[in-house]
Every structure is written in structure tokens, then in C-alpha cells.
Amino acid sequence: MLSKGLKRKREEEEEKAALAVDAWWLDPGHPDVAQAAPAVASSSLFDLSVLKLHHSLRQSEPDLRHLVLVVNTLRRIQASMAPAAALPPVPSPPAAAGAADSLLASSDAALSASMASLLEDLSHIEGLSQAPQPLADEGPLGRPTGGAPPSLGALDLLGPATGCLLDDGLEGLFEDIDTSMYDSELWAPASEGFKPGPVEGPGKEEAPELDEAELDYLMDVLVGKQALERPPGPGR
Amino acid sequence: MGEDTDARKINHSFLRDHSYVTEADIISTVEFNHTGELLATGDKGGRVVIFQREPERKNGPHSQGEYDVYSTFQSHEPEFDYLKSLEIEEKINKIKWLPQQNAAHSLLSTNDKTIKLWKITERDKRPEGYNLKDEEGRLKDLSTVTSLQVPVLKPTDLMVEVSPRRVFANGHTYHINSISVNSDCETYMSADDLRINLWHLAITDRSFNIVDIKPANMEDLTEVITASEFHPHHCNLFVYSSSKGSLRLCDMRAAALCDQHAKLFEEPEDPSNRSFFSEIISSVSDVKFSHSGRYMLTRDYLTVKVWDLNMEARPIETYQVHDYLRSKLCSLYENDCIFDKFECAWNGSDSVIMTGAYNNFFRMFDRNTKRDVTLEASRESSKPRAVLKPRRVCAGGKRRRDDISVDSLDFTKKILHTAWHPAENIIAIAATNNLYIFQDKVNSEMQ
Hints:
heterodimer; A: mainly alpha; B: mainly beta; four-stranded antiparallel beta sheet; 4 helices; 42% strand; globular; SERTA domain-containing protein 1 (chain A); SERTA_dom (chain A); protein phosphatase regulator activity (chain B); WD40_repeat_dom_sf (chain B); Serine/threonine-protein phosphatase 2A 55 kDa regulatory subunit B (chain B)
């Protein structure tokens, strides 16, 4: 069976080994669970899921159902990989931060690397930005700008910054206008907060200014003062 | 169509009428109209092809009406959303027929964002004998007109004309997955991943949002709407399914926004079958009310389930479509097949249910006899007018001669879209870019 353009990072033998133990996680009472192999199977499944998430988020308009299912599966896998972390099913940001800490501590370098690269790629995806909003103060790795835990980054990236024009009061005004561009948190520069390292700090501070210029432009478009044209800002 | 018909007759007496190759385009939806006279298909290229059943001829053994092409038109074109810099696919996601109210036929077709109402009319007469124009339409030299005549209608070759009557745009932020016409014949609903809107068929610039499951914080998004349908008789009731496998029955009389369900249908997870993929395989890909309105049929990745509207705790019947895939879920997750969305269908009397599978197989379950059959829709496996041979998938153990082993199933040949004639044993099966129409010869003679 062929996968759809997914790049295989692992050797084929390892994949076969992982697939051969397909039924692993079906039965927690299975004698083999005691062996190291389950961790291997889970880890490869985790990588696969992260890859899928990455691929899905890369789409210009991701399939929301696919995305949600992959993220939920990822959460299940994470929960099983670090049972001691007691990851709550629907974590609120502060709780998630704690879980993220322990998960990050316990996961291997490859895992962090893949998550980091995922988030890095996402932060490169330009999009209509949102008004600066208070980011959850997590900073599991002591990042200056803070951000939601990267291990649950996927949906946090979706999170947006819907704060921008979608404050409750304003939303009613634009009921009949397609505000999907504001909803599309999928390429939210809020992900900027997840970038590892302080180097990005100064760059990110510029973003809010751009945001407001873009917002003004878009407001003008909406009220018809300006003809529709490609918005300024980080071009695609 | 007797419910007491021996299941063997259903198994063995299906004939194949035609196999239509819709020229390189993958069929994305199939729908019979309310009488079964017309069959509409939509494809990835945004085209709609309508087939019409020929009137039955009295003589000959093959006198059942066969379906021929009636009309073809381009319903949706690819669009570009300039604000988001996104292409909007022209693929037709769903077609729903309106009940016929006059000589014209009407249907709704939708892509990811825009729903259109199309009117299909026939013209078999044309006026002849104009005073000012000649037969080719050119203006006559007035000096040659010496007397006046009254134009008369003369019969002409049948022409089928299709025109877009309404365009319902800008109602959806996310991708539309279902549309459903209300039994009041005045309104219809459209559902995307997070919202359901109610439209009036005559009003295009306004719609009412009746369900909104978008969380205030998108971080909290864990569930999306996968399908929805109006109750066939009660114009205030509709159901929608979710990616977590639950069904919500809503009553529009209760509130303007039906976020609070009237009933929640959910089966508790089977602990012995628990896996990382439990949620994905429980995601409901299609929901259909029975013709009686008493039951609902749902399709998830491995099963079809029949639910009684009066019982929310669990389905009353569960049928395994391809349980041999349960041990292959990891591979199917890897190649994304686990996300395939299969549809399901009732027959006219709600006694048999049908759904598609892989390898161009489709399955039928007789609810009364509890017998099931696997059939294949492919030109290689059956000649025209031959009787379909039941197939069997062998998952290990004793293997019979014509069995297909699980490992040799072709997962690129999926039958996602199927439809059953509202009254007769005629089914339409979409196999990638081919449409198969099967008729049950024996039963139609027993009418």
C-alpha cells in the first residue's frame, strides 16, 4: 500500500517491524507490552502522526476533519507514551503547560526536533495576522515571548488570534461577510511565539505593527473604500 | 418488492445494464430523484450528468427501462478566493433533488462553498412562422411581407435545457459536506465542518445559522460535523453526525440556535476494541434517515449501524462491512485510507442497506434475514447482463477458490458513493470514474 507522498524517515525494516506489531496497543494486557517494542511502535506512530499533522497544516486550506482526527490521535499517543504525566483530556492552557513540560522532558531529541521544525515551518507561512493578544505564559523552555505548549501546538496554532476583529461586539457587524480570513488561524503568526531561541525576538516585535496596517487595509476593503487587491505584508 | 424475498434472489439476480465512463472525471456524488426516473451524478470537474430511465417496452425479456444520458452541464467552476489566496475546488460534493412541483425538475448541487439551484426543463416544440424574421432568424425585408400570419408551435426534437436559478454563496467559512431539502419543500440546510445553515429556496442573500459548534477558542476544537439530514416527514427535525461518532437530533422548534440537541445518540466505546485509532474509525461518514422516518443509518469506517430514534443508548443493529481491516488500521492510517468517507443507503422498503468498500466491492445487508452479500462493480468481473457473482474476502483460514485475500485488496478502488432507487431494486454504484447501474430482474417481474 502506498502512502500519499509521505516521506519515510525510517528504514523499511523498522517500519515493517512497527507494522507487524499492529495489534500492540489493542490489548494493554498483552504480554509483549512489557517489552521495549511498544515504545518503538508508539514512537513511530507518533512521528507518523506529527508528519501527517505537518502535511495537513501545510495545505492552503486544510481538511478540518482530518486535522482534528490526527490531533486527537496524537493526543492519545502522547498520553500513552507518558502515562505519568497524566495529561488531561481537554487541557486548559496552564494545565497543558505542565503536561508539556513533562512530555518534553521525557521525549527524545528526535521528537522535539520534529515538533520544532514543524512549528518553525508553520511560522514561515504568512497569513493575515491578528491583533496582538495575550499569549499564555508557558515558556517551558524559557522562551522570551512564551506560547502555548508546542506538544499541543497543532491546535494552538489554529487558535488564533481570533481576537483580532472578532471581538463579540464586532462579530455581529460582519455576520454576512465572509470573515473566514480572520478565522483561518491555520497560518497564524501566533506560532511565532513557539520559535525556539531568543533570536527571533526582535523580528516578532515588528509583527504587531504590520498586523495593524493590514487590519486597517482590510477594514477599508470591507467598507468598500478600497478596491480589492493583494494585501500588503508578507507576500506568499 | 417483497421483504419475504429469498435473499438468494437478491444475491444472484442482479443484472448489469451499462457501464458509463464519465471521461476521466471521478464521480463524487450519486443521487436518484424522488421517482427514480432521473439519476444525477456529480464529478470532480464540477460537472453534473443526469440519466433518465427509458420507459419500459412491453416486449422482450430485457424490457426494463434502462438509463441513458439525459443532460450534462457544468455546475461549478474552479474559483479563486482573493482574500485568502485560495483556490476553491469545483468538485461537486452533494446533489439533492427537489420534489417535483411542475413539469420542470430542480436540483441543488454544491461544492465546498457555494450551493446552486438548477432547473431542468424540456422543450419539444418551437414556434414557427414569425412575421418579421425568417427561419434562420434574420430580419425579413419588409417589402416582401404581404400578409400577416400567427406563429404556430411545431413539434421538434427534444431539447433539455438547464439553467441556474439561484446561487447561494458566502454562507460557509468551512467546507460544505452535506445539503438536505426539508419536507416542507421551502427550505433546505447546508452543513460545513462547524456550522449548519438554513436557507429558503427563494432567498439567496440570507441564511440562518442553526448549529454552530465552533469553540470560542480554536485550541479547544476536538470535533467537527461530518454529515446532516432533515427528517423525511417532520420538518422541524434534523440530525447531524460528528467526527467522534455521535449523532445529534435537533428540533428547530426548541430554539433558533440548535446547539442543544434534543437527543444524543452515542454508543459507548467497546473496551476490548480500544486502540489509538478508535476515534478515527468511529467517525461517522454518512447518516441517512430511513424512508419510514423511524430509523437512522450511519456509516463509520468498519461498520454500518441502524439506530432507532427512540433509543439513544446504542444502535439496534450493527453490521460489519470489512472487519478484516481491523488489524490493518495502522497501515490504513499511514496511507490515509482510514479517513475515507463511505456513504450508505436504504432500499425503498428499508429492509436492505447498502454501502461501499474497497477493491470495487460493495456490501448489502438484509435486515430481516440477517444475510449479507459482497458484490463487485467492475467490467472485468462481469459481462453485460450477466448475473453478479457474490465475492468473498478471505482473512486467513480456509480459502476457497475465488476468494480474494485481504492483502491483495486494491485500496485505490473505493466505492464511496452509492444510491438506491426509491422504489425498485435498482442501484447506482460509482467506482472512481465509472458509474454502474444494477437492476434486479427477478424482483421487478414480481411487482
